[in-house]
Amino acid sequence: MRKFILLCCTVCLTCLTSCIRGEEFDNNAEGNFQALWSIINNHYCFFDYKAKTIGLDWNQVYKKYHDRLSLNMNTYQLFEVLGEMLSELQDGHVNLFATHDVARNWSWREDYPANFNDSVHQLYLGTDYRIASSLRYKILDDNIGYIYCGSFSSALGDGNISQAMLYLAECKGLIVDVRQNGGGDLTNADKLASHFTNKKLLVGYMSHKTGPGHQDFSDLQEIWLTPSDGVRWQKKTVVLTNRSCYSATNDFVKSMMQCPNVTIIGDQTGGGSGMPFSSELPNGWSIRFSACPIYDVNKNHTEFGIQPHIKVDMKTEDLLKNQDTLIEYARDFLKK
Fold it and tell me: Which of 58, 156, 254, 311 lies 20 to 30 angstroms, CA to CA, from 27?
């Protein structure tokens, strides 16, 4: 019998690590199933919300997948059952990690148009763009500033952002393109957003699990965006989004929604508003799941994404002309 002990999460904003002692389960198909179902049942944070939005019933999920267990099933069969059970949560932050595979549900982007074409996008960037950490930036030929941020995983400093904004200072307006940005460190997302406001802004709320019950949460805690001490952008800004904007990028868009002179254009973001925690099964497989919900400024869930101010989709006729519909729309919008 192996004791599953660890339930940990590193919170990027506070650098706190939380660990909780768990129950004991046998290292067989039944024990690993019970361990996984119990971890999610006691610590997952979106049960009530997803019961309302997608009809999730975790007890029914238990019966459905427990019936598929057998004493002689092999490792791959067990992984398939457990992975499909987790997929019922429809959460991109929920993953089961084994040495041979990663169970995931990426329907938040796979079930929708990309609204991004890498080859066409590269024509806009060219080869003469500047690089400041994860930012790729240049001045387009109509004097519109353009910043592409494809990830929040790399360290992003105020100096990087300030230098980019100084270079683009003479532009009529600015496009911040975060399409295809699947997230990363919340600290980096907040740092970039902090250069678009001159005053402290309430941008959302967070709560924490306080017990194993599906309704056991702390009171909502306010999340504030503090202005950067570096260069702050004062002109009109467009943020371009698509369904691949997830996790920390979803949070970035949530914050930018509250900044002045900012318009979100493109497709709904992919979502992913739960802070992920992790734990381990008796057989050594790791499980990651959402445990702390984050809300927008109106106390609404953004787990399934954020609607843009202006919905714009990529047009086939534009792609045939090597044009990015969203970038062209943003350029026209900023020049009006």
Answer: 58
